[in-house]
Amino acid sequence: MRTKQALIKNSIVGVWSKISILLFRIIQVPLLLSFLGVEGYGLWLVISSLPSWLTLANMGFGSVSANEMSIAMANGDVNKARKILSSTVALIFSISLIGILLIVSIVPFIPWEVFIKLPASRHNELAYTIIWLSSSVFLSFTTDVLSGRFRAARRAHVSMLLDSFKPWLELLLMVIVLRFSARYDYLALSLLLSMVGYLIINTWLSGRSLPSLAFSFKAIEVSQFRLLFRKGIAFQAFPLGNALLFQGNLLVIQGVLGPVSVALFATTRTLVRSINQLMEMVNAIIWPELSVLIGTNDLVKAARLHRIGVGFTFISSVVCVLILSVFGHSIYELWTGKAIALPQHLLILFLLPIVFNSIWYTSSVVHTSCNQHEGLAIRYLIASALAIITCGVLSYYKGVEGAALSTLTVDLILIPYVIKRSLKLTGDTMSQFIAGIGHEIKLGISTAKQMLRVPKKVAE
């Protein structure tokens, strides 16, 4: 019952989070354009993207510790959870402090204005912009640990709810600043202040959710550092693989086909990958509960939750693909103002890999939820690198159509491994897994019919 309640809360907040992010993106772009202008907004996007690479310094420590804390608390081992929390906070604080000091020491001496082609008089403005944005990135490393404390308290929905309001806090402070100045350093400072405010609120609420799980200098253990490094480095393979897959293929297409094809590929991929937002939501909903169920060896419930997650994602993705195959072309024309021509057959080729992606993506959360993700991480990196090579070859011979199909490389490599490993971790078998998905689908349809059925007395 507790697992069911947690999943319901996570689902409600998960849906709201996606709606919140969508509304934020719709509002943010025209708002910033009105204050900064087209050229100013374009420069802001370039400048603000530079510190994003610093996120790799996070090393995935927060995600690893969140899983370990959830498992420890589920087994009633408060001391172990406190050691994990304290060790992770100490390690992340040290990395963040060193990172900020290095940024402050190096950034002022880099000629940013030369790279961005702005007047030399704006050097200090650009330097402070990079410093504030970089500091905000380093401070954000703590958020995963705080999220872990919520998860350990079986209140992951509160963390998700806080995350959904964070962009709005950023936007509020940005608007306040832009009312008085369009300087990039003031804009970046507003983002830093919003991060500080978010961390204060998050720290206070996460502490109240589980007072017994608090930071202690005495609880810091060097042995925990080894676990965090070993598991954390593997976690970083996923953002690195994403960078290879999503940025690398744009560079390949640019070199082989030119900028027009890049624009077509990038915009179509953005439209199609909106379906992946649904997969990410499902993963966020079931991840905390899978950590607890697998950590306490309740594999029967873990296997069922895995089946429900994969079945729901697959069916929903197929439905979304069918909808976009019919209405996607019209949506694309409306979105781009018919500035870019998208052939219908090309849209179908972009949609095809989404179905294959849905087979393994949600299943992979089983690996990450219990920190058994090293094998997946290695294969994801290899698959991403091979996809880049495939993209180059297919682009050369088949144009953008070949580039669209190149992402299937990742799916075809990962599907057999991910499903097989997930079944082993949940104590499931392939026959039970497939039959279980069918059963859950029938049960879901039956439940939906009962909910929609109008009682005779009420109808009369």
From TrEMBL:
InterPro entries: Poly_Biosynth_Transport. The keyword Transmembrane applies. Keywords: Cell membrane, Membrane, Transmembrane, Transmembrane helix. The chain crosses the membrane at residues 12-35, 41-64, 84-106, 126-146, 186-206, 251-272, 308-332, 344-366, 378-397, 403-419. GO terms for cellular component: plasma membrane. It is found in: Cell membrane. The keyword Cell membrane applies. It comes from the Bacteria. It is a multi-pass membrane protein. Coiled coil: none annotated. This is Membrane protein involved in the export of O-antigen and teichoic acid. It comes from Mucilaginibacter xinganensis. The lineage of its organism: Bacteria, Pseudomonadati, Bacteroidota, Sphingobacteriia, Sphingobacteriales.
